[in-house]
Amino acid sequence: MSPAHVLEPTYRRLKRALMEGEWRGGTKLEAMRLADDFGVSMTPVRDSLNQLVGEGLVDLTPGEGFRVPVLTEQTLRDILDVNALLLETSLSENTPKAGQSDDQPSSDTYPDRLAAAFLGLARGSDNGYFVHLVERINERLHPVRKLEPQVLPKAIDMLNRIEASVTATRGEQIEAIRNYHEQCRSAVSQIISLL
């Protein structure tokens, strides 16, 4: 295992590059080349890649190595369906303090704001595993969400509704979640063509 002072920055850098879509789906991630690019040994790169496999951001095929996952239209539809189901289920689990969100976006970008709003909705359930799963989906869909404003004419309006719904009624929350996911599902082909 790599020392934390080398592993953590390597892991964060790799994860950010994957979330930003620096490599296309199917791209082979060669540990030695990445180690050279990052100025570290191969061990922290390999450890980071293995951790990212566990998070679903990297695929590992024995004999072939690490690759950026290929996102197909069906896979994207499936992820959107699961995300909508998780969020709606977390709303049915809401406790009286639901709707209070301390989640601040890590930046003011569309994907980060949307991720923070979805986490705020999930946190209302007090179910830590819902939050964990929504967080993983947010990370997996980050490259997709970067493209949504290009293909969804009302992406910013939907984002504003979702952000506002964090402190709204359950009915308004469900309406905002469903509207967003329906719009995304209708644009899956366009989004995949841009990845």
Distance between the termini: 34 Å
Low-confidence residue ranges: 96-100
Apparent shape: globular
Number of helices: 9
Mean pLDDT: 90
Strand content: under 5%
Q: Radius of gyration, rounded?
A: 18 Å
**Range of helix content:** 55-70%
Question: Could you walk me through the main structural features you see in this protein, from its secondary elements to its overall organization?
Answer:
- Helix 4 (73-92) runs parallel beside helix 5 (110-123).
- The chain has nine helices and three strands.
- The longest helix has 24 residues, at 128-151.
- Helix content is 67%, strand content 4%.
- The radius of gyration is 18 Å and the shape is globular.
- A three-stranded antiparallel β-sheet has the order 1-3-2.
Brief rundown of the structure:
By secondary structure, the chain is mainly α. It has helices at 4-19, 31-38, 42-54, 73-92, 110-123, 128-151, 155-165, 170-186, 188-194; strands at residues 28-29, 59-61, 65-67. Mean pLDDT is 90; it is low at 96-100.
What's the structural blueprint in terms of helices and strands?
Blueprint lengths: L3 H16 L8 E2 L1 H8 L3 H13 L4 E3 L3 E3 L5 H20 L17 H14 L4 H24 L3 H11 L4 H17 L1 H7 L1
Antiparallel strand pairs: 1-3, 2-3
